[in-house]
Specification:
Layout lengths: L8 H20 L17 E2 L15 E6 L4 H15 L4 E5 L13 E7 L11 H7 L13 E8 L8 H12 L3 E2 L4 E4 L4 H19 L17 E5 L31 E10 L9 E7 L11 E4 L5 H9 L11 E6 L5 E7 H7 L9 H10 L3 H11 L7 H8 L5 H7 L8 H7 L6 E4 L10 E7 L2 E3 L5 E3 L1 H8 L8 E7 L14 E4 L6 H17 L2 H4 L4 E7 L9 H9 L4 E6 L9 H5 L2 H12 L3 E6 L3 H18 L3 H11 L4 E5 L1
Parallel strand pairs: 2-3, 2-4, 4-5, 5-6, 5-7, 19-20, 19-22, 20-21, 22-23
Antiparallel strand pairs: 1-8, 8-12, 9-10, 9-18, 10-15, 11-14, 11-18, 12-13, 16-17
């Protein structure tokens, strides 16, 4: 073991104290902003200006690797599929569908799709436009007759529409005349999606020299992933007019005409307060975000937010890598080697790690492979190579030692100190980017036209390695209170067209949302209240037609929005049904309240009157429990057989039975 690369706990503590001081100084510096050219001319002081990545000419046959990605898993799989193509010397390129011109697809040579499904059978944000385009029934049946393709779907079998995007895309490509080169494969996140992917990837790699024989120039042997990025270190005079202490999305520039994931707006936090009582051992935040006179939303929509990493985590990570925390003040730009397009920067390395890179998620195989390359200790190198292996029969080690223990890059650097000489540019290339976090909006624009409300439980838990893991966004909320300072964060609205109130106030509504699952229903109730008062229909259309089932552990600890819900109940806007799971010996949940005789009879009556049934909460166990309870209710109080109940539910599902689950 290279002991010179090791660092004591005392030294880490000392570095952290110094780091916090440096962070405070960094945050006070606010130079004027400047838009930087997205294409970089590499200066002399660049790291890794060369690459063995296969460069292709315009018009040459190229295999494109596309991904439908919400959380980054399919993006990671796309990069690993791309590396297999590179190992054979096949000209290839990864494409983010968010930035891809869909009209080019009919002229492509080959397309490999890694397609994840979001929620209840929807495309992820980056693929919404593409999927709508390709599923358009007006497309010619021979549109893609010159395209070769393969599809791997990513999904979770806990959801009803398991792998819907992968299945739809796989079928549709063939309908449009494309030629399949490999059977459709799919992975299940509820089981072991890594193993599923590697089994498909093994077959895909075997197919490369057959399907793309005229493009193959190498042997296909496993190699260190090809370099695709260059890190530029700027001189001070190169960036003097740029706010290098923030990444682009955190700069207060003039808003883009379209506010979306690629172009969020810096919005101010107006209110950030605790919802739990002092008796609770947990925390839940109510956050009000300014619309900044440009954001508009509807009840049921989601807000996407980009948080910052905890500065302490940034300093810990930096302390294990070359140059330590002194490197954090370097002003860098990371760019693609081939086309020089900017990935991130110019900004300080510290800003990049705080605001752009995901430094706390479970470490992925490509990063483990990179660290193995730099490990000086033979045993450490062998262990890292074993974890990084893509052989289908060698996955247990990665699952047991990395995935199940939720190990991060920082933990691996501490556990394998001989690889702490890995250069920053190589580390950054294989760090995933930070993805936005989405929250159901818990307000109505009729009542709150200038603010968007968010309801978020602060996430903290111990991992199997005894590390205290903290939710990045919820702990950012917890630590950034506008009473103490001006607080801003990048946000955007994601419409949720499948989770809307019925247009008519005559249509009954049944809402089921325990804990923070009540968030969208707070907005629904506010909306109905405003409309009912305006139309003078409270007495006839209030609690008679609007039911809300809410549950929590204890009314004295975590009954969030108790004042607001109590008010709407007293004002006859809603019929409020409460379940407190920890106030009696036998736990009572919302599904039990749903089946209580008086409640069940009313629910059935409202359903028969055309009522809508809404569910918000955990998409795994809870959503299934509610679905089963509703089917039981239909049997017992609707006089249906089990088969008839299933058919009744099927007719409702997606039309009058609507879910917003995670």
């Amino acid at each position: 073991v290279n002991k010179s690369a090791m660092i004591s706990e005392f030294e880490v503590y000392f570095l952290l104290i110094g780091g916090v001081v440096a962070f405070l100084i960094w945050h006070l510096s606010k130079p004027k902003t400047h838009n930087f050219d997205p294409v970089i001319n590499f200066p002399a002081k660049s790291v890794n200006k060369k690459s063995d990545q296969i460069v292709y000419d315009e018009g040459e046959n190229v295999v494109k690797v596309f991904y439908y990605s919400q959380t980054g898993i399919s993006e990671d799989f796309a990069h690993r599929t791309f590396q297999d193509l590179q190992s054979y010397g096949v000209p290839s390129k990864i494409e983010d569908l968010y930035e891809y011109d869909v009209g080019q697809l009919e002229g492509e040579f080959a397309a490999i799709f890694l397609a994840s499904t979001y929620g209840e059978g929807d495309p992820p944000d980056n693929a919404i436009d593409f999927h709508e385009w390709i599923m358009d029934e007006d497309r010619d049946s021979d549109l893609l007759q010159n395209l070769q393709f393969a599809v791997f779907g990513l999904g979770d079998s806990n959801f009803d529409n398991f792998n819907e995007m992968g299945k739809q895309l796989n079928t549709r490509l063939e309908q449009l005349g494309a030629e399949r080169i490999l059977e459709y494969g799919q992975g299940d996140d509820a089981e072991n999606i890594e193993t599923d992917f590697l089994a498909w990837k093994y077959l895909f790699k075997q197919s490369i020299p057959v399907s793309f024989s005229e493009l193959v120039t190498k042997t296909g042997e496993e190699e260190l992933p090809e370099r695709a990025h260059v890190m530029i270190i700027h001189e001070q005079n190169e960036t003097q007019d740029i706010d290098v202490n923030n990444t682009a999305r955190w700069r207060k520039n003039v808003p883009n005409k379209i506010i979306d994931q690629l172009h969020p707006i810096m919005a101010s936090i107006k209110i950030n307060r605790e919802l739990h009582t002092e008796e609770s051992d947990r925390s839940c935040r109510h956050v009000e975000i300014s619309c900044e006179s440009i954001l508009s939303y509807e009840c049921g929509d989601h807000i996407g937010v980009f948080p910052e990493n905890d500065p302490r985590e940034v300093y810990k990570l930096a302390s294990y890598l070359p140059g330590g925390i002194d490197r954090l003040k370097d002003v860098i730009t990371v760019a693609h080697i081939n086309d020089h397009k900017t990935v991130i920067g110019p900004c300080t390395l510290q800003a990049a790690l705080l605001q752009y890179y995901d430094i706390t998620s479970t470490i992925r195989k490509p990063m483990l492979r990179v660290l193995a390359e730099y490990a000086e200790d033979i045993q450490e190198k062998e262990t890292l190579m074993k974890y990084a292996s893509e052989e289908p029969n060698m996955q247990e080690a990665y699952k047991e030692n990395i995935v199940d223990k939720l190990k991060t890059l920082q933990e691996i650097l501490k556990e394998f100190p001989s690889c702490n000489n890995a250069p920053w540019d190589h580390i950054l290339e294989f760090l995933p980017s930070m993805k936005p976090r989405f929250y159901s909006i818990s307000s109505s624009p009729l009542k709150y036209p200038d603010t968007i409300h968010v309801t978020a439980v602060v996430v903290e838990y111990k991992t199997p390695t005894k590390r205290l893991a903290k939710g990045v966004t919820t702990n950012w909320f917890k630590g950034n209170i506008p009473d103490e300072k001006d607080v801003f964060m990048p946000v955007f609205i994601r419409p949720n067209p499948h989770f809307k109130l019925p247009k008519s106030l005559d249509t009954p509504v049944i809402m089921v949302g325990p804990g923070t699952g009540v968030a969208p229903f707070k907005g629904f109730v506010e909306e109905r209240h405003e409309l009912l008062v305006k139309e003078d229909l409270v007495s006839s259309h209030g609690a008679q037609k609007n039911m809300l089932f809410f549950g929590c552990r204890n009314p004295d600890q975590d009954f969030i929005y108790s004042d607001e819900l109590g008010y709407y109940s007293e004002e006859n806007i809603i019929d409020l049904k409460l379940a407190f799971s920890r106030t009696q010996e036998e736990k009572v949940y919302v599904q039990h309240k749903l089946l209580e005789e008086n409640n069940a009879k009313k629910v059935w009556k409202l359903l028969e009157a055309g009522g809508y049934f809404y569910v918000c909460g955990d998409g795994q166990q809870f959503a299934h429990d509610i679905q089963n309870a509703l089917k039981q209710l239909i049997v017992e109080y609707g006089g249906k057989t089990k088969l008839e109940s299933d058919a009744y539910f099927k007719d409702m599902n997606g039309e009058r039975y609507l879910v917003d689950v995670w």
